[in-house]
Amino acid sequence: MRTLITGGAGFLGSHLCDRLIKEGHAVICMDNLITGNMSNIAHLFGHEKFQFIKHDVTEYIYVEESLDNILHFASPASPIDYLELPIQTLKVGSLGTHKALGLAKEKNARFLLASTSEVYGDPLIHPQPEEYFGNVNPIGPRGVYDEAKRFAEALTMAYHRYHGVETRIVRIFNTYGPRMRIDDGRVVPAFASQVLKGIPLTVFGDGSQTRSFCYVTDLVDGIHRLLFSEETDPVNIGNPHEMSIMEFASKIQEIAGVNLKIETKQLPEDDPKVRQPDITKAKNILGWTPVVSFEEGIGKTMEYFRKKLNI
Ligand code: UDP
Fold this sequence. Notes:
The structure is a single chain. The protein is an alpha/beta fold. The chain has helices at 11-22, 79-84, 86-107, 143-163, 187-197, 216-227, 245-256, 280-286, 294-309, and strands spanning 2-6, 26-31, 50-54, 69-72, 110-116, 167-172, 175-176, 201-204, 210-212, 214-215, 235-237, 242-244, 262-265. It has 2 domains: 2-175 and 216-237, Rossmann fold (3-Layer(aba) Sandwich), CATH 3.40.50; 177-211 and 241-273 and 292-309, UDP-galactose 4-epimerase, domain 1 (Alpha-Beta Complex). The strands form 4 sheets. It has a 7-stranded parallel beta sheet, sandwiched between helices. The mean pLDDT is 98. Residues 78-79, 174, 185-187, 190, 202-204, 209, 211, 245, 267-268, 271 line the site of uridine-5'-diphosphate.
Protein backbone atom coordinates (compact mmCIF):
# COMPACT_ATOMS: atom_id res chain seq x y z
CA MET A 1 0.00 0.00 0.00
CA ARG A 2 1.16 3.50 -0.77
CA THR A 3 -0.25 6.40 1.25
CA LEU A 4 0.14 10.14 0.75
CA ILE A 5 -0.12 12.24 3.90
CA THR A 6 -0.55 15.98 3.37
CA GLY A 7 0.66 17.93 6.39
CA GLY A 8 2.82 14.91 7.12
CA ALA A 9 5.46 16.95 8.95
CA GLY A 10 2.91 18.32 11.41
CA PHE A 11 1.93 17.03 14.83
CA LEU A 12 -0.75 14.55 13.74
CA GLY A 13 0.61 13.95 10.25
CA SER A 14 3.99 12.82 11.54
CA HIS A 15 2.43 10.35 13.99
CA LEU A 16 0.39 8.96 11.09
CA CYS A 17 3.58 8.63 9.00
CA ASP A 18 5.12 6.60 11.85
CA ARG A 19 2.10 4.35 12.25
CA LEU A 20 1.77 3.56 8.54
CA ILE A 21 5.51 3.04 8.01
CA LYS A 22 5.41 0.61 10.93
CA GLU A 23 2.64 -1.27 9.16
CA GLY A 24 4.66 -1.57 5.98
CA HIS A 25 3.01 1.15 3.87
CA ALA A 26 5.11 3.19 1.52
CA VAL A 27 4.52 6.74 2.79
CA ILE A 28 4.77 9.97 0.84
CA CYS A 29 4.83 12.86 3.28
CA MET A 30 3.91 16.23 1.75
CA ASP A 31 4.24 19.51 3.63
CA ASN A 32 5.10 23.13 2.90
CA LEU A 33 6.53 23.43 6.42
CA ILE A 34 4.73 26.64 7.35
CA THR A 35 3.50 25.10 10.59
CA GLY A 36 4.98 21.60 10.19
CA ASN A 37 8.58 20.87 11.09
CA MET A 38 11.26 18.62 9.64
CA SER A 39 12.30 17.57 13.14
CA ASN A 40 9.00 15.64 13.41
CA ILE A 41 9.98 13.36 10.52
CA ALA A 42 13.80 13.48 10.65
CA HIS A 43 13.92 9.95 12.09
CA LEU A 44 12.11 8.61 9.00
CA PHE A 45 14.65 9.88 6.47
CA GLY A 46 16.67 7.01 5.09
CA HIS A 47 13.79 4.58 5.54
CA GLU A 48 13.40 2.94 2.14
CA LYS A 49 9.62 3.33 2.14
CA PHE A 50 9.56 6.96 3.22
CA GLN A 51 9.59 9.91 0.86
CA PHE A 52 9.26 13.61 1.63
CA ILE A 53 7.99 16.19 -0.86
CA LYS A 54 8.04 19.87 0.09
CA HIS A 55 4.93 21.24 -1.57
CA ASP A 56 2.04 23.60 -0.93
CA VAL A 57 -1.09 21.51 -1.55
CA THR A 58 -3.12 24.54 -2.60
CA GLU A 59 -1.11 24.26 -5.87
CA TYR A 60 -1.56 21.38 -8.31
CA ILE A 61 -0.27 18.16 -6.72
CA TYR A 62 1.81 15.87 -8.87
CA VAL A 63 2.62 12.36 -7.67
CA GLU A 64 4.15 9.95 -10.12
CA GLU A 65 3.45 6.71 -8.27
CA SER A 66 0.11 4.94 -7.81
CA LEU A 67 -1.64 5.74 -4.51
CA ASP A 68 -3.98 3.65 -2.37
CA ASN A 69 -4.79 6.26 0.28
CA ILE A 70 -4.60 10.01 0.71
CA LEU A 71 -4.82 11.43 4.22
CA HIS A 72 -5.45 15.17 4.01
CA PHE A 73 -4.01 16.66 7.19
CA ALA A 74 -2.45 19.87 5.86
CA SER A 75 -3.71 22.97 7.70
CA PRO A 76 -2.68 25.40 10.38
CA ALA A 77 -4.59 24.01 13.35
CA SER A 78 -4.00 26.08 16.45
CA PRO A 79 -6.00 29.27 17.05
CA ILE A 80 -2.93 31.53 16.98
CA ASP A 81 -1.68 29.87 13.80
CA TYR A 82 -4.88 30.35 11.92
CA LEU A 83 -5.23 33.91 13.21
CA GLU A 84 -1.77 34.64 11.81
CA LEU A 85 -2.39 32.69 8.60
CA PRO A 86 -6.08 33.31 7.86
CA ILE A 87 -5.84 33.23 4.06
CA GLN A 88 -3.56 30.17 3.97
CA THR A 89 -5.99 28.42 6.36
CA LEU A 90 -8.94 29.14 4.08
CA LYS A 91 -6.93 28.15 1.01
CA VAL A 92 -5.69 24.84 2.34
CA GLY A 93 -9.16 23.82 3.52
CA SER A 94 -10.76 24.76 0.20
CA LEU A 95 -8.23 24.75 -2.67
CA GLY A 96 -5.98 22.22 -0.90
CA THR A 97 -8.86 19.84 -0.29
CA HIS A 98 -9.93 20.26 -3.93
CA LYS A 99 -6.43 19.34 -5.18
CA ALA A 100 -6.15 16.38 -2.81
CA LEU A 101 -9.60 15.09 -3.82
CA GLY A 102 -8.77 15.53 -7.49
CA LEU A 103 -5.65 13.45 -6.95
CA ALA A 104 -7.68 10.77 -5.12
CA LYS A 105 -10.09 10.60 -8.07
CA GLU A 106 -7.24 10.39 -10.58
CA LYS A 107 -5.40 7.69 -8.62
CA ASN A 108 -8.52 5.82 -7.56
CA ALA A 109 -7.32 6.22 -3.98
CA ARG A 110 -9.25 6.29 -0.73
CA PHE A 111 -9.41 9.82 0.71
CA LEU A 112 -9.57 10.68 4.41
CA LEU A 113 -10.25 14.26 5.48
CA ALA A 114 -8.99 15.59 8.80
CA SER A 115 -12.00 17.59 9.95
CA THR A 116 -12.53 19.03 13.37
CA SER A 117 -14.81 19.55 16.35
CA GLU A 118 -14.66 23.21 15.27
CA VAL A 119 -17.38 22.40 12.72
CA TYR A 120 -19.67 22.43 15.79
CA GLY A 121 -18.51 25.98 16.66
CA ASP A 122 -19.68 27.13 20.09
CA PRO A 123 -22.04 24.18 20.47
CA LEU A 124 -25.58 24.44 21.77
CA ILE A 125 -25.83 20.66 22.09
CA HIS A 126 -23.64 18.86 24.59
CA PRO A 127 -21.89 16.45 24.13
CA GLN A 128 -21.68 16.80 20.35
CA PRO A 129 -22.97 13.93 18.18
CA GLU A 130 -22.17 13.79 14.45
CA GLU A 131 -25.77 14.72 13.58
CA TYR A 132 -25.36 18.18 15.14
CA PHE A 133 -24.94 20.90 12.47
CA GLY A 134 -23.11 23.31 14.76
CA ASN A 135 -23.15 26.94 15.78
CA VAL A 136 -20.38 28.67 13.84
CA ASN A 137 -19.74 32.38 13.39
CA PRO A 138 -18.59 32.59 9.76
CA ILE A 139 -17.07 36.06 10.10
CA GLY A 140 -15.41 35.73 13.50
CA PRO A 141 -11.65 35.18 13.85
CA ARG A 142 -12.06 31.39 14.10
CA GLY A 143 -14.35 31.36 11.04
CA VAL A 144 -11.35 30.98 8.73
CA TYR A 145 -10.65 27.53 10.15
CA ASP A 146 -14.21 26.44 10.94
CA GLU A 147 -15.68 27.39 7.59
CA ALA A 148 -12.71 26.03 5.63
CA LYS A 149 -13.23 22.66 7.34
CA ARG A 150 -16.98 22.80 6.82
CA PHE A 151 -16.40 23.52 3.14
CA ALA A 152 -13.85 20.69 3.03
CA GLU A 153 -16.46 18.28 4.42
CA ALA A 154 -19.01 19.46 1.83
CA LEU A 155 -16.49 19.05 -1.00
CA THR A 156 -15.48 15.61 0.23
CA MET A 157 -19.12 14.46 0.25
CA ALA A 158 -19.63 15.96 -3.22
CA TYR A 159 -16.64 14.00 -4.58
CA HIS A 160 -18.02 10.91 -2.92
CA ARG A 161 -21.55 11.33 -4.25
CA TYR A 162 -20.79 12.79 -7.67
CA HIS A 163 -17.49 11.11 -8.56
CA GLY A 164 -17.79 7.98 -6.42
CA VAL A 165 -14.49 8.64 -4.62
CA GLU A 166 -14.07 6.46 -1.51
CA THR A 167 -14.04 9.04 1.26
CA ARG A 168 -13.77 9.16 5.05
CA ILE A 169 -14.20 12.17 7.36
CA VAL A 170 -12.80 12.26 10.87
CA ARG A 171 -13.87 15.05 13.22
CA ILE A 172 -10.91 15.45 15.50
CA PHE A 173 -11.38 16.81 19.03
CA ASN A 174 -8.57 18.38 21.11
CA THR A 175 -5.57 16.08 20.81
CA TYR A 176 -2.22 16.37 22.57
CA GLY A 177 1.11 14.61 22.81
CA PRO A 178 4.75 14.76 21.76
CA ARG A 179 5.54 16.91 18.68
CA MET A 180 3.03 19.64 19.45
CA ARG A 181 4.82 22.94 18.97
CA ILE A 182 5.73 24.53 22.29
CA ASP A 183 4.75 27.96 20.99
CA ASP A 184 1.58 27.02 19.10
CA GLY A 185 -0.49 28.82 21.72
CA ARG A 186 -2.68 25.85 22.58
CA VAL A 187 -3.44 25.12 26.16
CA VAL A 188 -1.47 21.86 26.45
CA PRO A 189 1.94 23.18 25.30
CA ALA A 190 1.25 26.47 27.12
CA PHE A 191 0.51 24.88 30.51
CA ALA A 192 3.14 22.14 30.11
CA SER A 193 5.92 24.63 29.39
CA GLN A 194 4.73 26.99 32.14
CA VAL A 195 4.79 24.13 34.65
CA LEU A 196 8.26 23.05 33.50
CA LYS A 197 9.59 26.60 33.75
CA GLY A 198 7.83 27.23 37.08
CA ILE A 199 6.03 30.35 35.84
CA PRO A 200 2.33 31.32 36.23
CA LEU A 201 -0.26 29.43 34.21
CA THR A 202 -2.13 31.61 31.71
CA VAL A 203 -5.84 30.86 32.01
CA PHE A 204 -8.03 32.58 29.44
CA GLY A 205 -11.28 33.99 30.82
CA ASP A 206 -12.49 32.47 34.08
CA GLY A 207 -11.35 29.00 33.00
CA SER A 208 -14.87 27.56 33.21
CA GLN A 209 -14.86 26.66 29.51
CA THR A 210 -14.43 22.93 28.97
CA ARG A 211 -12.40 20.74 26.63
CA SER A 212 -11.90 16.97 26.35
CA PHE A 213 -8.33 15.91 25.64
CA CYS A 214 -7.32 12.85 23.63
CA TYR A 215 -3.79 11.41 23.62
CA VAL A 216 -2.28 11.24 20.14
CA THR A 217 -1.81 7.45 19.92
CA ASP A 218 -5.51 6.94 20.69
CA LEU A 219 -6.44 9.40 17.97
CA VAL A 220 -4.14 7.74 15.42
CA ASP A 221 -5.68 4.38 16.24
CA GLY A 222 -9.19 5.76 15.68
CA ILE A 223 -8.17 7.31 12.36
CA HIS A 224 -6.58 4.06 11.26
CA ARG A 225 -9.75 2.13 12.05
CA LEU A 226 -11.89 4.70 10.22
CA LEU A 227 -9.68 4.61 7.12
CA PHE A 228 -10.14 0.86 6.79
CA SER A 229 -13.85 0.91 7.67
CA GLU A 230 -16.68 1.44 5.20
CA GLU A 231 -18.11 4.55 6.91
CA THR A 232 -18.43 7.55 4.62
CA ASP A 233 -20.28 9.89 7.00
CA PRO A 234 -18.23 11.90 9.54
CA VAL A 235 -17.07 10.17 12.72
CA ASN A 236 -16.02 11.96 15.93
CA ILE A 237 -12.71 10.79 17.33
CA GLY A 238 -11.79 12.23 20.70
CA ASN A 239 -11.64 11.44 24.37
CA PRO A 240 -14.92 12.23 26.16
CA HIS A 241 -13.07 12.91 29.43
CA GLU A 242 -14.21 16.53 29.85
CA MET A 243 -12.71 19.10 32.19
CA SER A 244 -12.75 22.84 32.63
CA ILE A 245 -9.55 24.72 31.79
CA MET A 246 -9.23 25.66 35.47
CA GLU A 247 -9.46 21.95 36.40
CA PHE A 248 -6.81 21.23 33.78
CA ALA A 249 -4.55 23.85 35.38
CA SER A 250 -4.94 22.11 38.77
CA LYS A 251 -4.48 18.59 37.39
CA ILE A 252 -1.31 19.31 35.47
CA GLN A 253 0.20 20.92 38.57
CA GLU A 254 -0.83 17.94 40.67
CA ILE A 255 0.77 15.53 38.19
CA ALA A 256 3.99 17.58 38.16
CA GLY A 257 3.92 18.19 41.94
CA VAL A 258 4.04 21.99 41.71
CA ASN A 259 1.89 24.86 42.93
CA LEU A 260 2.04 27.91 40.68
CA LYS A 261 0.11 31.16 40.32
CA ILE A 262 -2.72 31.54 37.85
CA GLU A 263 -2.54 34.55 35.56
CA THR A 264 -5.90 35.38 34.03
CA LYS A 265 -5.92 36.60 30.42
CA GLN A 266 -8.69 37.77 28.16
CA LEU A 267 -10.85 35.03 26.66
CA PRO A 268 -10.34 34.95 22.87
CA GLU A 269 -13.34 35.90 20.73
CA ASP A 270 -15.71 33.01 19.96
CA ASP A 271 -13.81 30.63 22.26
CA PRO A 272 -16.24 27.67 22.58
CA LYS A 273 -17.72 27.40 26.08
CA VAL A 274 -17.99 23.62 26.08
CA ARG A 275 -16.66 20.75 23.99
CA GLN A 276 -17.02 17.02 24.42
CA PRO A 277 -17.30 14.34 21.76
CA ASP A 278 -20.16 11.90 21.70
CA ILE A 279 -18.22 8.81 20.58
CA THR A 280 -21.11 6.35 20.41
CA LYS A 281 -20.66 6.06 16.66
CA ALA A 282 -16.90 5.39 16.84
CA LYS A 283 -17.54 2.75 19.52
CA ASN A 284 -20.27 1.02 17.53
CA ILE A 285 -18.85 1.23 14.04
CA LEU A 286 -15.10 1.10 14.68
CA GLY A 287 -15.00 -0.67 18.04
CA TRP A 288 -12.82 2.25 19.17
CA THR A 289 -12.45 3.83 22.58
CA PRO A 290 -9.50 5.81 23.92
CA VAL A 291 -7.29 3.86 26.34
CA VAL A 292 -4.58 6.32 27.47
CA SER A 293 -5.37 8.07 30.75
CA PHE A 294 -4.87 11.81 31.16
CA GLU A 295 -2.11 11.22 33.75
CA GLU A 296 -0.17 8.90 31.46
CA GLY A 297 -0.61 11.08 28.37
CA ILE A 298 0.33 14.30 30.15
CA GLY A 299 3.35 12.55 31.68
CA LYS A 300 4.66 11.53 28.24
CA THR A 301 3.93 14.96 26.79
CA MET A 302 5.73 16.75 29.64
CA GLU A 303 8.74 14.47 29.13
CA TYR A 304 8.86 15.51 25.46
CA PHE A 305 8.66 19.22 26.31
CA ARG A 306 11.25 18.81 29.06
CA LYS A 307 13.76 17.55 26.47
CA LYS A 308 12.80 20.23 23.95
CA LEU A 309 13.23 22.97 26.53
CA ASN A 310 16.43 21.40 27.88
CA ILE A 311 15.09 21.43 31.45
N1 UDP B 1 -6.39 28.49 26.89
C1 UDP B 1 -5.97 28.99 28.13
N2 UDP B 1 -4.66 29.34 28.26
C2 UDP B 1 -3.74 29.21 27.28
C3 UDP B 1 -4.16 28.68 26.03
C4 UDP B 1 -5.50 28.33 25.88
O1 UDP B 1 -6.76 29.14 29.06
O2 UDP B 1 -2.55 29.57 27.49
C5 UDP B 1 -7.80 28.07 26.75
C6 UDP B 1 -8.51 28.58 25.49
O3 UDP B 1 -9.10 29.84 25.70
C7 UDP B 1 -9.54 27.49 25.27
C8 UDP B 1 -8.86 26.23 25.80
O4 UDP B 1 -7.80 26.68 26.63
O5 UDP B 1 -10.69 27.73 26.02
C9 UDP B 1 -8.29 25.34 24.70
O6 UDP B 1 -7.56 26.16 23.85
P1 UDP B 1 -6.68 25.60 22.66
O7 UDP B 1 -6.06 26.78 21.99
O8 UDP B 1 -5.77 24.55 23.18
O9 UDP B 1 -7.68 24.88 21.68
P2 UDP B 1 -9.20 25.12 21.21
O10 UDP B 1 -9.93 24.00 21.83
O11 UDP B 1 -9.70 26.45 21.70
O12 UDP B 1 -9.12 25.05 19.73
